Amino acid sequence: MRIGAWVAQASPACDGGAFKDKLLFNGFRASTLVWGARFACWVWSFALIRGSLVRALMTSVALSAGALLAGCNSDEIGSLATNAKANQPVPPKLLAAMVEKNMDLQSPILVRLFKQEAELEVWKQDRTGRFALLKTYPICRWSGDLGPKVREGDRQAPEGFYAITPGQMNPTSAYYLSFNTGYPNAYDRSLGRTGSELMVHGDCSSRGCYAMTDEQIAEIYSLGRESFFGGQKSFQFQAYPFHMTALNMARHRNSPHMAFWKMIKEGNDHFEVTRQEPKVDFCEKKYVFDGVKPPDAKRDPVFEASSKCPAYVIPDEVAQAVREKQQADDAEFAKLVSKGTPVAQLNTGIDGGMHRVFAARVPNGNTGLSEAGPTPSVFNPPERAPGTIPLDHVNPPRGSVTSPDEPLTASLSSSSTRVASAPSGESEGFFSSLARKFGGTASADATAADPTPPPIPAKPKVADVKPSKSAKTETKQASAKPPLKPAVTETAAAAPAPAATPAPAQPAPSLVAGAQPIVSTSSFDSRFSATK
C-alpha cells in the first residue's frame, strides 16, 4: 500500500510548510476514482438484466470501497513518520517519566498553552483514565496580544479549544515540525473570524503562531504521533491568555476580552475538576462543555454554532464540582478587587512574548507580554536553554519587559506543582545585570512587588466522574495495558548531547539535556523563500 503523498503549497501564513495536500488513495489518483464511478453506473444498468450475479458484484464493490476508505485513514496515520525528523523516538527521560506516572507510551494526550506565562503543557492519560501533567515546555516566541484571533493578518495567536487530528500534523514543515491548531473552529467561523495555517512549530520565530525550539517541537510531535499510533482520533488543544486563576482574572478585569475569557474558563474548570478531556460543542455563538441529552430525550443533542441551543444537560457530578470551583474563584476575585489589585495595562503596543529562559540568552532580548506563572517558573534559571536558539533570525518582543513597579519574577500564588524540564543554577550576577538593564532592583530571588502576597486559593475539588443516573455519559476510563515498552533503548540516547563550545564573537546554541540528535535546518530566509 502506497503511503499518502504530501504536496506542499506556498502559504502566506506563518508556516511556510503548509499541507493543503492531495492524498493519493492507496496509490490511485482522483481520475481513477472517476472512471471507477462510471464503471459502477454501467454495472448498475446491467443489474436490471442480470440481477443475482450483479448483486454479488455490487457487494464486492461495496466491500472494496470500505477497504479504500480504511486505507485512507491508514495513509493519514502512516504519513506521520515519513522522514527522520518526524520519526525521532520519544526521549528516554520522558519514557521514564511515563513509567513513574503510570502512563502508557501510546495513551491519549492533551495540550494546554498559556500566553502570559509563555508555557505549553503536555498532559497524558494514565492507567486510571485521568489526565496528568507529563511535561511543561517554555514557549520561545508567540506574537500578537492577549486575546483571541479575529482576522487574517492581525498577528494574533488563537485562543480557545481545538481538535488536532493526524491530518493536521506536518512532518515536512518549513519550521522543522509543526501541527495546525485548527483555527478557525466552528465558534470562530460563526463570528466571521478569519485566518488559516496557525501552527505550533519549531524555529523560535512567530507570525501569528506559537513557536518552540526544534528540539522541543520534536518531543511534542513524537508524543502526538505515538498517541495517534495508539488509536487516539484527535487530541485537544486548549489555548489560554493566562492561567485562569482569580488573580489573573482580577488583573485583567478591564480587558475587552473578559466575556470570552470567562466562557473558555468554564472549559478550563471542567478539565481541572475532572481531569478528563471536556466534550466541546458550540451553539448560539458560544462554547458548550460536556453537554449531553436530557434524561427523557431519545436522541443526542445536535449542536450548531450559529443556531439555537438544543436541549441538553451537564452530568450532575461535573456540574456540582465546577459550580463549587467557580464560587471559590468568584469569592477570591471579589476579595482581590476590593484590595485594589492593580489592573494590567491595555494596548501596550508590544508584539507578543517570549519565555524568560530564552529572552535571557538573546541579545537585547526581553519577555514582552510574558510574565512568570503562578509560581517562580520551573525554568528559572536553567543551566542551558531547552533547545537551540536561532540567534541569526530570532525576533524577540520589542518594548519594556514589565511595568516599573513589577519585578521580573511575578508574585502570583499557586495551588499546583510544575514538572521541571531543566536543572537550575544560573549565577546571580547575570540576573542582577538584567534587572538593572530594565530599571529593577538587583535581586535574583525577588518574588513580590507587594510584600504581602495574596492568599492562596483553595485547591479545586476533583470530581469522581461516574455515569449519571439521569444522563448517560461517555466512558473514558482507560483499560489496563501491559508494561510500557520503550521506543528507544537505554543505550541509544541515555547520555545527554554535549553543548556546543561558544565562539568568541557569538553565543553558541545549546541543547536540552538528553535531547535526541536532530536533522539540521536551513536558515529562516531560505525557509520563507517558498512563500515569497
Automatic annotation (TrEMBL):
The keyword Cell wall biogenesis/degradation applies. It holds the Pfam family YkuD. Residues 461-475 have a biased composition (Basic and acidic residues). SUPFAM superfamilies: L,D-transpeptidase catalytic domain-like. GO terms for molecular function: carboxypeptidase activity; transferase activity. InterPro entries: LD_TPept_cat_dom, Transpep_catalytic_dom. This is Murein L,D-transpeptidase YafK. It comes from Bradyrhizobium erythrophlei. The lineage of its organism: Bacteria, Pseudomonadati, Pseudomonadota, Alphaproteobacteria, Hyphomicrobiales.
